[in-house]
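pasting for the record
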Amino acid sequence: MNFKKIIFLIIFLFTNISIAQQDIVIERKYTVEIERLVKNKKIKAAFAKIKELEPKTMKRHISLTEIPSPPFKESKRAAAFANHFKELGVDSLWIDSEGNVLGLFKGSKGNRTIALDAHLDTVFPDGTDVKVNIKNDTLFAPGIGDDTRGLSMILTLIETMKTTGIKPKGNILFIGSVGEEGLGDLRGVKHLFRDGGPKIDSWIAIDGGSIGRIYNKALGSYRYRVTFKGPGGHSWGSFGLANPHHALGEAISNFVINANKFTLEGPKTSYNVGVISGGTSINSVPFESSMQIDIRSVEPYRLDEMEILLKSAIQKALDNQNKIKRQGPNLTLELEKIGNRPSGELSSSVPLIQRTISAATYFGEKPILIRGSTNSNIPISKGIPSVTIGCGGKGGKVHSLDEWWINEEGYKAIQMALLIVLSETGF
């Protein structure tokens, strides 16, 4: 008997089990449910098919990675992904007005709809070289793990279900979503969960990371663009004009002093000035100076309090710089909220979370429930059963030009996704 089966037998013998030094409790009925699924002949055939399709999964993985998909410019990759859906024969296929690709796999009853999502976009700007370089067993390319692997997993799942004759009870909505990264602000998923959007009863997102990392908690964030504007001029001849850079520097200092004190206590909250821009030359008073700032917290009310600190800091800087100017008009200030990702948390007792924990344990993992900022933030904040799972394999340097991924038993992540989807929709 192998180690995986020994672990699963231990779970089977006890009603509850705690894992990974967390208060994670698995209810026995969900371990039974997963055990029954993996013993099913069609599921066994599907598991074998997933392994058989590994070369094709890898081929799709590479080809999709090499289609640039920068923020707000996902259309080329979306078209290619939709073409795969068409070739695989989903029951319905469409690209919505936001750019999300949706493929419906109709269930035998169709009374519920389970969504399985991976995001189309990457963090890398237009013009980034996304050619995949292969060195030994390692794939190198921007976006190779986050989240192109998830897209290829979805395609393999559809092909597996079609070729093995698996028919779920509920509908499965396969999705390639836009706007997950950066200033995309989860626009694709926000559109899906708008009033009048498609009916989604449970949500499963695939993103980077190992299959033991299970996101059931949403990390909320506010993002802002702060801009000071003035007339600009020559550094000598126009000396004494109110300087936008000086105001921005003071604003950052004001904010950091107060934000540091605020975040030393209470629920974890972070802040980061990530982008600063403006100015034309060293000997010119700039006419504009701006920053982009990211604020995150596990508690929504903390974001609101940090917003108050930011507004106070930038207003104080504006007033002071206008006060000390020696000539010309006052500076003006613009504060734009460019991101709003909601917080939230689902109990580990939610059936979808229980099924995910049970499935991960079946594959010999020690699951950990974690908090993060993913496409699941939106449904979690609305109380909809939601989880984000990893794409498996082994990878690193995410969001860098040197991002890498190794197909180290990557098929297990696909098999696990299949178990979760079918246990949630019924089979």
